[in-house]
Amino acid sequence: MHMITAIIRPSSYQAVREALTQLGIQGITSTQCQGFGRQRGQTEIYRGAEYEVLEVPKLRLDVAVSGAILSQAIEAINNAARTGKTGDGKIFVTSLKEVHRIRTGEVDEAALT
Ligand SMILES: Nc1ncnc2c1ncn2[C@@H]1O[C@H](COP(=O)(O)OP(=O)(O)OP(=O)(O)O)[C@@H](O)[C@H]1O
Ligand SMILES: [Mg+2]
Description:
This protein is of the alpha+beta class. It has helices spanning 13-22, 70-81, 108-112; strands at 2-8, 29-35, 42-46, 49-53, 56-65, 89-95.
């Protein structure tokens, strides 16, 4: 099992959501966030000094998936969130040790789907 953390443009959310649910993914956590990539946000002059404006609004998606659909899920996010312009976002993948559905006590794969 893996946890996919995707930082995307808020405007890409509907397309990403649809693409992931079409794969049978049952849940997504979305969080409004802000960050910067290698462009370091935009710079701004204020009282003669240049400041970095680091806060670019983004959406963070956390999606737990089985290994069987990991590559399809990544492809789906890439295709749905790509505009080709800087700031499209990033996808981070980490190993997921355990999943528990609180209501039933199901664990791991049974708790994912
Ligand atoms: N190394 C990183 N660690 C954590 N978050 C990151 C990292 N790089 C980017 N992000 C997050 O992803 C968001 C979008 O990044 P962005 O798409 O600008 O990446 P980039 O590496 O600058 O690529 P591009 O050149 O396509 O813009 C950032 O606002 C930030 O929230
Ligand atoms: Mg960038």
